[in-house]
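Narrative summary of target 7.
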Amino acid sequence: MSLRLLSVTSELHPLIKTGGLADVAGALPLALAGHGVEVRSLLPAYPQVQRALARIRLRPVHSYKTLFGGPARVLAAQHQGHDLLLLDSPALFGTRDGGLYGDLAGHDWADNWRRFAALAAVAADIAAGALKGWAADVVHAHDWQAALTAAYVRHGRRPDLPVVVTIHNLAFQGRFDAAIFPELGLPPSAFALDGVEYYGGVGFLKAGLQYADAVTTVSPSYADEIRTPDAGMGLDGLLRARGDAVLGIVNGIDTREWDPMADPALAAPFSHRALGGRSSNRRALEKRFGLKPGRGPIFAVISRLTWQKGIDLIVDAIGHLVGLGGRLVVLGSGDGAMENALLGAASRHPGAIGVVTGYDEPLAHLIQAGADAILIPSRFEPCGLTQLYGLRYGTIPVAARTGGLADTIIDANDAALNAGCATGLLHQPGSGDALRHAIARAVHLHAAPDLWQAIRRQGMRADWGWERSSARYAALYTDLVAQAATR
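Modeled conformation, tokenized:
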């Protein structure tokens, strides 16, 4: 007998993506199918999503005369193995001059509370049986944009329905003024310390953490870190109070999409047994970024260009990196000052630094296939997928020892090198000196080709697909459904 799961997310790869949330929401449902979990994924019908599905029949399966200020429909579709439910609300998710969550100036949309409250309310309706012939056994809500689903479930028609909320990044919490509460459609009792109230306002993520049967994070280390005042961002007390209901399950990657032997974005295929194709990808990367050929390592950055990601530390370390004979390629966007600093470094070091602002998925694949090392000096990192893609493609991660980075990379210290199990280099987070030392270590190791190739191959042999993690999620869902049946 299969278990029916409703996955609620604000983005899902390959339809719409701003970060790792989309990768997880896209890959996990496919992996769960092998464990007897039937997944339906609910997400907004953004214009980009509708364009991506233009050749696919979208079936109306439910409608609302008014949903948070306007009419709305739920559309059903099948796409690349996904059973999709799309919330079509032009007033909330129609064409806007900006991104999914904010305008071109980087300001959040003023109605984000309304947009994602609607998503959560519809999720609770669907889970409770609003669609003919289907109701959920369990709900999985991703990040603050979907977390209010737990509140609507608890105060809805099926209050005992198990709900899992996953924190992908605790820094984004969905905090709004208390004035919005009367418009949410929740009972007055929900505006309380053990409900949606958060420091006098409404907290979407806080509500999810309060009401969920289980709270997962995307790595075990991050689950520990966010229960401390330093990393808990105001929610550490609640997370500690939830006790064993909070657990870390490390993310996986889609190994079919990220396969160096069959990736159409690459100049040549390769594997850990036959690394020769990496040379062709290295040359293609040099050409794409205007780098001069050289013997030193090519370092890469594929990231949001923000303080959290430690991009300021990379900017400060560029002179050191180039002085050691290294070169650097950057793909990303974010903080304007950091973008300008990187572009300025590229103009000062022509042939050694290359920068592309924005995001380009095929180019990200080529970078992972052609670079030698990828820099990830995050001040905190819930899981990170970039280092997993790097390990898969033989681009050795040079990363901060925090969160999921610490859980997925084995530092190339003497013991690990002697044991033949090293997969990358770790350093203290938030320290420019530590990053520069790690870069120097990487340059030194790269100068010993046999040793560097051994580290590269060890990382490529590691299995970071979804099999183990999806099995843990399936077991969690099963346990929660069994517990609900006894209540």
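The two ends are 21 Å apart (CA to CA).
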